[in-house]
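Long-time lurker. I teach an intro course on protein structure, and each term I like to show students one example going from raw sequence to a predicted 3D structure in token notation. This year I'd like something fresh instead of my usual example. Would anyone be willing to generate the tokens for the chain below so I can use it in lecture? Attribution to the forum is fine with me.
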Amino acid sequence: MRGLVFAGERQVEYVEVPDPTPGPGEVVLEMKASGICGSDLHMYRGPKGMRLLGVTAEGPIIAGHEPCGVVAAIGPDVSPMEARVGARVMVHHYAGCNVCRHCRTGWAQMCDGTTPTVYGIGAHGGHARWMKVPARTLVHLPDELSFEAGAAISCGTGTSYQALKRLRIAGGDTIAVFGQGPVGLAGTQIAAALGARVIAVDLSPERLALASDLGAEITIDSSKDDAVDLIKQATGGQGADFALEASGAQSARNAALNCVKIWGVVGFVGVGRETNVDVTPLMRRQVTAFGSWTFSNVGQAECARFAAERGVAVDRIFTDRWRLDQGAEAYQKVDAQAGGKGVFLM
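-- Reply from a regular --
Happy to contribute to a lecture. Here you go:
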């Protein structure tokens, strides 16, 4: 089969590898949709031969850690409860030791028994026709959701959902969402579905327009206005109840911390570089801050059910859809960070 790989220095290439055959406990999926995540840009922009997250592997690795498709083949020792041919599934894109306390609760990325495998980074991902994974990584895709929606939930949308759960927002709360890339747009959409008043912050007029369409009551272009001041004006001088930081930019991280009210809570999901923070004002305002890294397989399934039951139109965060052979064009567009989410449709 033919798969897309990152060559470094903003180049993609295609490699030919043998079609996968499932071994014990494994399945092969026929890909239907494979999402493009903002975190892919770290590898896309990186130098040739870079190593990410401490994961190494021999030979080129097929990219794509937002896979969604149908079960095409099942290996030995896979129970009918785990997989059946033709089932619509997402993939929890991590595999750990399956024994430690974290793996047993669905948090394979937190595995303390071994270095977890990250599909699309340390093992072949979804940017190909077929993908082989352990059956235990499969997550059911509700019939109400498209394969595109399943791809989004497999990373970006699921990441926002998990952080919003930890924030415990409810109807009547105000949340400021910093960064309206695919993860931030998903945060805006889900927070609005939960009944919260959403203030969306970004530098891109196009992304702010998308945020408004997805439920943001107020949008702020932080390249023109002071986001903290406008958020306080919109909340009677008190500040937002919550903030979700999805850009990873130092300025946005500090603004998220400074825009919340006394006893406010801030969740960080955007991957970025080191940030300097003056802690004393946060102490005096009793602000709580936490980091959130993706989700468990249980949380992924819960996010999918939430979207299906609440009628959340996850597909609306997609602004670009490509064939797999349009990889160069696709990643050039995503690299510009102007639109919504992109996906390869097989």
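Some talking points for your students: The mean pLDDT is 95. Residues 297-310 form the longest helix (14 residues).
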